[in-house]
Design brief:
This protein has a single domain, classed as ABC transporter involved in vitamin B12 uptake, BtuC. It is 82% helix and 0% strand. The protein has 10 helices and no strands. Helix 9 crosses helix 10.
Length: 250
């Protein structure tokens, strides 16, 4: 009984966090795919990560509010910049997004070059530490995901212009802290690929995400392997299965 309770305390917050992110990211990912700006999530996530790294390097034991604010400011700046590029140089947008990702990633590595735990910080930024997510983390970030989802489905005009980028930056800022850049990208793009040409894209993307997150966390817990990469693999496998099922039923 004690083992079950202990496992629930570890898996519970990670599972809820993963499902919150999956539910929020699905509609955002579908929109990203429609716009053809596939790597914007990686770039914005990396800018948010750069904000996190900068704060930890420059400030000794920064508060969660300072970390969240700096990461959000960095992500909003990236969103604003990509909006300007979308309007001014749409034909070069994807190339500039890719270059921005490489630049922010390189700056993060340079900032952590002399950090005593630099390698761990980079690994945490990329693949996350989902099994270290606590119920307090879930409670702190849950209102953000609820706000994003509510605005997305009740205020349709917010999907246009700067509104989309602000919501996107807000979601990415929380998600990078909870699950890392790899899972952020997977949860945005892979379910959208499975859902974009279906009759009910949101339901398909949500179904795919729920199965991927739940199975990924269970497998990672049983095998004692890093949960972030396992969830990415779970997303890929579930999307392949969903697509095969769709092809067979056409």
């Amino acid at each position: 009984m004690n083992i079950s309770v202990e496992m629930l305390e570890i898996i519970g917050p990670a599972l809820v966090a993963g499902l919150m992110i999956a539910f929020t990211h699905a509609p955002l990912g579908i929109e990203v795919l429609k716009r053809g700006i596939i790597f914007i999530d990686l770039a914005v996530a990396q800018f948010a990560g750069l904000g996190l790294v900068t704060t930890k390097v420059l400030i000794h034991e920064p508060s969660s509010g300072v970390i969240q604010g700096t990461a959000l400011a960095s992500a909003i700046f990236a969103g604003w910049f990509f909006l300007k590029i979308e309007r001014a140089l749409p034909e070069y947008q994807e190339a500039i997004i890719g270059c921005s990702f490489v630049l922010s990633a390189s700056l993060s590595i340079l900032l952590l070059a002399d950090h005593p735990h630099g390698g761990e910080e980079i690994q945490h930024l990329l693949s996350g530490q989902m099994l270290f997510v606590t119920w307090l983390n879930v409670l702190n970030h849950a209102p953000i995901y609820l706000l994003i989802t509510a605005l997305w489905f009740t205020k349709l005009s917010i999907r246009n212009g700067i509104g989309f980028y602000l919501l996107f930056a807000l979601a990415i800022t929380s998600s990078v802290q909870l699950v890392g850049i790899y899972v952020v990208f997977a949860s945005l793009i892979l379910p959208a690929l499975a859902a974009v040409k279906t009759t009910y894209p949101h339901m398909t993307a949500w179904s795919c995400s729920i199965v991927a997150v739940a199975s990924g966390i269970i497998v990672a817990t049983i095998t004692d392997l890093p949960v972030g990469p396992i969830i990415v693999l779970s997303y890929v496998m579930n999307v392949v299965i969903f697509c095969i099922f769709q092809i067979k039923n056409k």
